Amino acid sequence: xxxxxxxxxxxxGWAAIVALLASSVAFTGSSGATTTPMTTSLSxxxxxxxxxxxxxxxxxxxxxxxxxxxxxxxxxxDADYNVVDTGxxxxxxxxxxxxxxQLDGDGDKEFAFNPVYPQHLPAGExxxxxxxxxxxxxxxMDTGLDNSGDSEHYLxxxxxxxxxxxxxxxxxxxxxxxxxxxxxxGSYTFRxxxxxxxxxxxxxxxxxxxxxxxxLALYSSFDxxxxxxxxxxxxxxxxxxxGYGNTQMAEQLDxxxxxxxxxxxxxxxxxxxxxxxxxxxxxxxxxVDWASQGPGEVKFEMWGPECGLDISDDPACKASPTxxxxxxxxxxx
Length: 333
Fold this sequence. Notes:
- By secondary structure, the protein is mainly β.
- It folds into 2 domains: 26-116, no CATH class; 125-332, no CATH class.
- It is 1% helix and 42% strand.
- It contains 1 helix and 24 strands.
- It has one helix at residues 287-290; strands at residues 26-27, 34-35, 41-45, 54-59, 64-69, 73-78, 83-88, 91-96, 99-103, 110-118, 125-134, 140-142, 152-154, 162-164, 172-182, 186-196, 214-219, 231-235, 250-252, 257-260, 265-270, 273-281, 296-304, 330-332.
- The longest helix has 4 residues, at 287-290.
- It is globular, with a radius of gyration of 21 Å.
């Protein structure tokens, strides 16, 4: 998990926006699922009324050929805002990848080229795909004080389980729960694949909403008055994992659907028994503020041993298997 505070920093920080210029994007279904052809070339003309705060989703293995005309100059940054290159931009073609482009020294003329990676397919079987609701009347829990030194509270002291805090003030987080039962001990993966409303990480047409940065946590026993107790596994950002370095990115699922990097993803080893899956948001938000944003929902998947959960979508699993011997809990995420 990154040690960099994750605050909204406009285009070049956390507000991800899907470009509507050279490549069109179709929003499909619920829970923020999007399909898009990858952008491999682009023309920008400073006399043609450039859009502002635009992000292009691009194949991770392919540069984007960007032709710039009728501009004064350009600055290319890497994903961490370090200057890579500068030069005149009256007529130039750049090959860009995982980069940020600024024209004429103007923050309103910035374009980010964010990589789309192949998905990290979880091990085991896809057991179920569910919609996890955060209703308008969602209750709140106080996640406590900063115990990370980075304006986050690590649930159970686990550094992949950081939630934002308002330390020293109370840090309310709305939440919702789902009860699940593990029938077969083994390794299980929980991953979010999209939020509704989809939020500004995906498109400038969308309003910012805290549900676009969701957080999933699994508990052996959940007590909202003590959310540090009983944590089995949790995570809020895919982009903290697999060497992504907490950068702007997405993974492409089957059918071209983008799973944006602020969706949660974690793997944990579970013993047979009953658990509580908790949905909240990384950001601090109380019930009053949520009433002006909500309701919201996250579409998520659970992967693991065949017929391993009581809520498996496979009809053949409705007859419960015999639980095997317990496996001690541990997790990565």
